[in-house]
UniProtKB/TrEMBL annotation:
Subcellular location(s) per record: Membrane
The name this protein goes by in its record: IFM10 protein
Transmembrane helix in keyword set: yes
Keyword terms: Membrane, Transmembrane, Transmembrane helix
Family: Belongs to the CD225/Dispanin family.
Organism in which the protein naturally occurs: Casuarius casuarius (Southern cassowary)
UniProt signal peptide: none
Membrane is among the record's keywords: yes
Short name of one Pfam family: CD225
Gene label: Ifitm10
Amino acid sequence: RGPPQGCFACIAKPPALRPASPILAPASAGYLMESKSCQGDSLRPAGQCKHLVEKKTMTNPTTVIEIYPDTTEVNDYYLWSIFNFVYLNFCCLGFIALAYSLKVRDKKLLNDLNGAVEDAKTARLFNITSSALATFCIILIFIFLRYPLTDY
């Protein structure tokens, strides 16, 4: 049948997957040996190797620029957490909010944007809960101080 024709990627395929190629006459083999389109080809006409384009794109040097997400947009609710921890620490919810706010700051330094966003949501939830419950308790205290239970 003759030597296999094509580049290494075409020759390396099993015979069942390789396209059928005609056997060249010895007269045209000398001409084809001078015009090599793929490295290592000697008996293949120019322009038939589909891997030639891939070889050009694979050998071109590329520059990779890593762009980190902008973590300054993630709010850490740090001041709100400190206020809740010092003044409105209802059932230690202000302390938990402060812990999550610190976790947000750490994850922002590590460029973990997804983790920082999740912890920021949790810190906000604990801050809202702590603020609402502590405010509700303060309002109840003022109501009971203004209208003692002996009046009912």
